[in-house]
TrEMBL record:
Catalytic activities: D-fructose 6-phosphate + L-glutamine = D-glucosamine 6-phosphate + L-glutamate
A GO-annotated cellular component: cytosol
Organism lineage string: Bacteria, Pseudomonadati, Bacteroidota, Sphingobacteriia, Sphingobacteriales
Gene Ontology molecular function terms on file: carbohydrate derivative binding; glutamine-fructose-6-phosphate transaminase (isomerizing) activity
Residue numbers annotated as active site: 365
Cited function: Catalyzes the first step in hexosamine metabolism, converting fructose-6P into glucosamine-6P using glutamine as a nitrogen source.
Assembly notes: Homodimer.
Main localization category: cytoplasm
Swiss-Prot/TrEMBL GO biological process terms: amino sugar biosynthetic process; carbohydrate metabolic process; fructose 6-phosphate metabolic process; protein N-linked glycosylation; UDP-N-acetylglucosamine metabolic process
UniProt name for this protein: Glutamine--fructose-6-phosphate aminotransferase [isomerizing]
Residues of the full protein shown: 244 to 613 of 613
Domain SIS: 46-185, 219-360
Cellular compartment(s): Cytoplasm
EC number, as in UniProt: 2.6.1.16
Length: 370
């Protein structure tokens, strides 16, 4: 059947709005809040390999790589196992050291990205076990993996990935939680909290869509003529800053850089002047105070501060020129919320600048040649 925009002006907007449903679909049947139970059958299939693995390597490209970076933080925190995140195009050519003790997680929306596929084939030949986190059922990566878990986001048509990204994050969260449960590296109480927080996400994303849209549109109009944008975040919000910058570049053609908030002192801060919008991903977490001081550094140099914060954050209201609010969540889960306003911001900037947001120039939905 034809895939339609069902009343939305663009596939990208439709896909952003589908996220309360697609996020639910990615954990449906895999999460039992009452029993604090997790089911990920693909993971059971490689249980022995995983429990024995001294490290996990995540291989991906583009937006999927950002999901992988967040998973590095999550898995190391919850499962106490070493995680490396690799760009498939680099991993494939740099003669990496791999053996049968390695478990590789491949993250790919299409399951057809050439660099990712070949990187995995090479690793498999060297004995590694491949776990695929893929959206397209029956795709090449899904078929070559030893085990895996589909993301269940449904077909994604917009070239810039949105709902596939949040679905990848959900599955990677489930992976981390389940592995932590198997290894006993997180307390039952902590797991229970995280399961509940994950379960609340669809409703919380809906809240953002219902309550922040006009605010985000206004911010998009205000900053649409900027030449550059900076996106900053620390900890779990750093991968989200990278993803925010990538989205904006892809569909507005405005140059944008994502950076770890503290690392900006070592370069990007030189760009800050009264014209530069700086988006802080600053939801509540243990780094929050540090992020605030990074905001002050930008403000002292007259940068235009835009802050994505948790509900009830008065500090940000005082500091930032514009504030976007997301519901409160656990720090391990809130990246799933923080990315949604950034998707919308780039969408509306792209619309203001009359970019073909569903099919931006020079980009392909799936890069099947290297
Ligand atoms: C292309 C797409 C991106 C995607 C990347 C990786 O660049 O435009 O949206 O993140 O490929 O694709 P994959 O299908 O492997 O996730």
């Amino acid at each position: 059947a034809a895939i339609e925009k069902s009343g939305y002006e663009h596939f990208m907007l439709k896909e952003i709005f589908e996220q309360p449903q697609t996020i639910f679909d990615s954990f449906r049947g895999r999460l039992d809040v009452e029993q604090a139970m997790l089911t990920l059958s693909g993971l059971d299939a490689i249980k022995d390999k995983l429990l024995a693995a001294r490290r996990i390597i995540i291989v991906a490209c583009g937006t999927s790589w950002h999901a992988g970076l967040l998973a590095e933080y999550l898995i190391e925190e919850l499962c106490r196992v070493n995680v490396e995140v690799e760009y498939a195009s680099e991993f494939r050519y740099r003669n990496p050291i791999i053996d049968e003790n390695d478990v590789i997680i491949a993250v790919s929306q299409s399951g057809e990205t050439a660099d990712t596929l070949v990187a995995l084939e090479n690793a498999k030949k060297q004995g590694a076990t491949i776990f695929g986190i893929v959206n397209v059922v029956g795709s090449s990566i899904a078929r070559m993996a030893d085990a895996g878990a589909y993301t269940h986001a449904g077909p994604e048509i917009g070239v810039a990935s949105t709902k596939a990204f949040t679905a990848q994050l959900v599955v990677l969260e489930l992976f981390a939680l389940k592995l932590a449960q198997m290894k006993g590296t997180a307390s039952p109480e902590r797991l229970r909290q995280l399961i509940a927080a994950l379960h609340a996400v669809p409703e919380q994303v809906q809240w953002i869509l219902d309550n922040q849209l006009d605010n985000i549109k206004r911010i998009a109009t205000k900053y649409k003529d900027a030449r550059d944008f900076l996106f900053l975040g620390r900890g779990y919000n750093f991968p989200i800053a990278l993803e925010g910058a990538l989205k904006l570049k892809e569909i507005s053609y405005i140059h944008a850089e994502g950076y770890p908030a503290a690392e900006m002192k070592h370069g990007p801060i030189a760009l800050v002047d009264e014209h530069l919008p700086v988006v802080f991903v600053a939801t509540q977490d243990p780094f929050y105070e540090k992020v605030v001081s990074n905001m002050q550094e930008i403000k002292a140099r007259k940068g235009r501060l835009i802050a994505v914060v948790s509900e009830g954050d008065e500090m940000a209201e005082q500091l930032a020129e514009d504030v976007i609010t997301v519901p409160k969540s656990d720090e391990l889960i809130s990246p799933l919320l923080a990315v949604v306003p950034l998707q919308l911001l780039s969408y509306y900037v792209g619309i203001e600048l009359q970019v073909d947001v569903d099919k931006p120039r020079n980009l392909a939905k799936s890069v099947t040649v290297e």
